[in-house]
Amino acid sequence: MLALGDSYTVGEGLPAEQSWPAQLSRALEAEDIAVGELRVIARTGWTSEALLSALQEADPQGTYDLVTVMVGVNDQFNSLSIDAYRANLRALIERAVILAGGDAARVIVLSIPDWSASPAGAQFAAQRVPVEVARFNQVCQEEAQRAGTRYVDVTPLSLQMSEREDYSAPDGLHPSGEQYRARVDLILPEARAALGGLDE
C-alpha cells in the first residue's frame, strides 16, 4: 500500500500508528485482506507541487495493491493557483495509476478537509476558506472521476471538529486518531472493492 499526501496523511501531532493509512492497513488485515508493507510519501506543509516533486525523486518501483492520494490543503492555505493544483493533481493521479499496475480502480483519491472548522483554525481562518476548500475539492473530484479512480469525501468529518473535542489532535488543528478512525470507516468499503475483497 502506498499513501501519498501531506500532514493529513502523515497524521501530524500523533503517533504514526494513529494515522489513517496505518489504521486502514490494520483494518484490511483484520479482514484477511493483506496489502503488505505500507509506504508513506507525505510531509506536513507539502503542496501538490511539492508532493509531485517528492514522488518523482523517490521514484518508487514495482506495483502496489492500493495507492491513495490526498493533497491540496496547503495549495489552498497558501493561495496557490487552482489551475496549477489541477495540473499537479492530474499528474499525481496518473503516476498513482501506473504504480497500481495501470488499474485506476485500485487508486483512491480523498477530498481535502476544511481546516477552518478545527478549534485552532476557527481562530484565524477567513470566511473565504470553506468556499475555497469547496472549489479545490470540486477539482479533486473532477480529476478523480476523469482518471476513473475511486473518490472518498472525508470533508464532512472535518466539519465535526467544531463540535467534537475528541476529533482534534493536541495542536487543535489536525485530526485526532478518533477522527482518522472514522475516516477509515468511509475508505474501507472502497478499499475492499479495490482489492477484490468483500462486497460493499
Automatic annotation (TrEMBL):
SUPFAM superfamilies assigned: SGNH hydrolase
Q: Which InterPro entries match?
A: Ester_Hydrolysis_Enzymes, SGNH_hydro, SGNH_hydro_sf
Pfam families assigned to the protein according to its UniProt record, in alphabetical order: Lipase_GDSL_2
Q: Where is the signal peptide?
A: none
Q: What are the SGNH hydrolase-type esterase domain coordinates in residue numbering?
A: 3-182
Q: Which protein, by its recorded name, is this?
A: SGNH hydrolase-type esterase domain-containing protein
Supply the source organism for this entry: Ornatilinea apprima
Q: What is the lineage of its organism?
A: Bacteria, Bacillati, Chloroflexota, Anaerolineae, Anaerolineales
